[in-house]
Amino acid sequence: MENNETKEAGNQPNQPSQPNQPNQTPNKKRRFNFMWIYVILFAALIGVNFFGRDAATPHEDLDQGKLIEMLKNEEVGKIELINKEDAEIYLNQKGLAVHFPEVTPNTDGFTTTANYTYRIGSLERFEEMVENAQQEVAHPVYITNVRRNNWMSDILAWVLPFGLFIVFWIVLMRGMGRNMGGGAGSIFNIGKSRAQLYDKNTSVNVTFKDVAGLEEAKIEIMEVVDFLKNPEKYTKLGGKIPKGVLLVGPPGTGKTLLAKSVAGEANVPFFSLSGSDFVEMFVGVGASRVRDLFNNAKSKSPCIIFIDEIDAIGRARGKSAITGGNDERESTLNQLLTEMDGFGTNNGVIVMAATNRADILDRALLRAGRFDRQIYVELPDIDERKAIFEVHMKGLKLGSDIDKDFLSKQTPGFSGADIANVCNEAALVAARKNKQLIEKQDFLDAIDRIIGGLEKRSKVITTEEKRTIAFHESGHASVSWQLRWGQPLVKVTIVPRGKALGAAWYLPEERQITTYEQMFDEITSLVAGRAAEEIVFGQISTGALNDLERATKMAFSLVAYYGMSPKVGNISYYDSTGQSEWNFTKPFSEHTNETIDSEVKRMVEEAYQRAKSILLASRDKLDQLANVLFEREVIFREDVENIYGPREWDKKAESEEQKAESEERNKNEDTKE
Questions:
Q1: How far, in Å, CA of 9 to CA of 14, rounded?
Q2: DSSP strand pairing (270-274 vs 303-308)
Q3: Residue 60 is a catalytic residue
Q4: What is the pLDDT of residue 19?
Q5: What is the CA radius of gyration of the chain?
Q6: What is the pTM of this model?
Q7: Rounded to a whole number, what is the distance in angstroms from the first to the last CA of the chain?
Q8: Which of 80, 149, 320, 448 is a good FRET partner for 369, with 20 to 30 A between their CA atoms?
Q9: How far apart are CA 519 and CA 509, in angstroms?
Q10: Order of strands, edge to edge, in the sheet holding 116-119?
Q11: Is-cis flag, bond preceding 101, omega within 30?
């Protein structure tokens, strides 16, 4: 029922603009398009074929009954079967006198053209019909087979398909050249690099001022930029320019934004592309694009090449999840390794790359001489989050109650992208409420929505379920409030959000190392919800699924990773390289596996019994808190403090903080004197 995990997603601000396009003045004089010649010739062929036939072609079709009647009356003088498809009927003088009295026959007794046309279906049936109709006729008419060639139709039957095929091929080649980055509109340019170039003529509006909270990373990156601007400062001491800089960190921490700021700060050409731009359906394209990229970079040296998401081509060779690997990707990686530190030299070309998974990259790519420096871009701390809020709040219309220090405390574990999403979501919330300014509550609503999801007040929940959820969440809040290392409460709600029926927001202490007591207190707080259900209702529910999952993983980490179990000992089975994720065998024996399972079960069970004892000792306060939560549906830190009283550990922390501030103040006064 808890949902304290952050989402690593968001939009990066200040996208770089595209390179400026030169102004083009339209040419008033139209050039003649030779395509019209082909259109006119094609239309002429069609016209000759359909409208240029012999003017004497008959225009009247004859039905079967009338033809039989004419044959019986001996009005037909000649029947010509054209290409065994159509029959042309010529009338004799008797027939002409009856049907066409105004027509004068020739010397042979017939007209120049046929008088009627009969569309035959089956040749055998037509011949049988003519023969049967003339059984009692003294002078029957016999069918004459005539072969007649239509040269224009034959020519079109051969030329038209080839013409259409040629037109289709031209259009296809132009489209493939345009869509695949051919540049010149041809498929033969598919192996060219698709990198976007930023230089002095390109408007890039992202600088180091737009990157907040990455001071150490900016110092190292700025050193690379300074080396490109003033190489003599370093080379006079015998130093060499680093060949590669790898930015490593969780998603949304600002790796790509940091690279964009380099493009804005440096006065050198900057090539930017993604790792997936090297991958194509054609074999050998990736390696060809790598060669073309470095050739372009050498021609504009000194310069910087930035490859975003380099793990798309830099994954360790032979470690692919698919059996057999990907030969095209590996050939692209081999070409990249050769270009970065091969037999040739790349003086003045620095390769920057960003990835979220440095553990899966090939070791040859990470060795010294290729990526000489690895800069870790971690999640921002409280001071860095405040600086990030200041950057993203520049374009917002804020109310007078906005406290950036408070907001930075309310967003532990948020990345830079998450904070950007919070600011944008707060503006949307305020606009949805028709406000003129963005207030503090809008930011809190935005944080709640990002962490827990959208409220679902229309979800049908019975009174018994609502009461169970209230005691479950109150159990978490009560135990966490009374434990020394429990996380301070911020807000508890039983309004469904996302997939959770209830949620509790805590303010975890930001620390770099964690002791066994601290993690055990967190496990105790996690299982306190189910313990409250058992104490109050005498039964447990499925609502503790997420709590048990997190508690089990935390206990397993204590035993198998951190070596905090007396039975297992100071042994860690954690693999920081990530190379064992495709292994099907465990790094320990079956006996050790049983020991780990028993220790995990023991820790979780001890935490559960501890949570029950804490709740039983303060059962009356648990009931009060649950009743308040059941009525209001949302409670805050102040409500818990009114029932349980202030936490003694918070008092000690405040006194120590005040003491440190007074000592700092006295030190500053002594310095001034």
A1: 16
A2: parallel
A3: no
A4: 39
A5: 42
A6: 0.63
A7: 57
A8: 320
A9: 12
A10: 116-119, 86-91, 76-82, 143-146
A11: no
DSSP-derived pairing of the beta strands 373-376 and 244-248: parallel
E strands within 583-640? Answer: 634-636
Tokens of 572: 């860690």
Interstrand relation of 270-274 and 143-146 (parallel, antiparallel or unpaired): unpaired
CA–CA separation, 481 vs 650, rounded Å? 10
User: Does residue 647 come out as left (phi exceeding 0), alpha (psi in the -120 to 50 range) or beta?
Assistant: beta
Q: What pLDDT score was predicted for residue 174?
A: 65
The torsion angles phi and psi of 532, rounded to 5 degrees, stand at -65, -40
What is the distance between the alpha carbons of residues 11 and 34, in angstroms, rounded to a whole number? 49
| One-letter identity of residue 89 | I
Q: CA separation (Å) from 170 to 159, 161, 501?
A: 17, 14, 60
Pick the catalytic residue from 309, 328, 384, 473: 473
Query: Which residues, 6+ apart, have CB-to-CB distance to 640 below 8 Å?
Result: 477, 478, 481, 489, 625
**In the prediction, which pLDDT does 7 show?**
38
Q: Residue 547's CB: how many other CB atoms inside 10 A?
A: 21
Check residue 569 and report its DSSP letter. B
Question: Is the Cα torsion angle 411, 415, 419, 421 positive or negative in sign?
Answer: negative
What CA–CA distance (Å, rounded) separates 348 from 589?
A: 52
DSSP line for 256-315: HHHHHHHHHH-SS-EEEEEGGGG--SSTTHHHHHHHHHHHHHHHT-SEEEEEESTHHHHB
Q: What kind and span of H or E run contains 87?
A: strand 86-91
CA gap 511, 430 in Å, rounded: 34
H or E stretch at 143: strand 143-146
Let me know: does 89 contact 62? Beta carbons within 8 Å.
yes
CB 201 within 8 A of CB 20: yes
- How many other β-carbons are positioned within 10 Å of the β-carbon of residue 20? 9
State the Cα–Cα distance between residues 592 and 571, nearest whole angstrom: 11
What pLDDT score does 56 carry? 41
| CA dist list (Å): 339 to 191, 244, 450, 551, 588 | 16, 12, 43, 48, 41
DSSP summary character for residue 34 = T
CA distance 225 to 668: 37
The tokens describing 260, both together, are 């964009």
If 0-12 CB within 10 Å is exposed, 13-18 middle and 19+ buried, where does residue 30 land? exposed
**What parts of the chain have a pLDDT lower than 50?**
1-28, 52-59, 181-187, 321-325
DSSP secondary structure string for all residues of 348-382: TEEEEEEES-GGGB-HHHHSTTTS-EEEE-PPP-H
The span from the CA of 659 to the CA of 475, in Å, is 34
**Closest by CA position to 276, among listed 377, 381, 195, 166:** 195
pLDDT of residue 413: 83
pLDDT for 358 equals 82
Determine the Cα–Cα distance for residues 133 and 390; give it in Å rounded to an integer. Answer: 103
C-alpha 498/C-alpha 454 separation (Å) is: 6
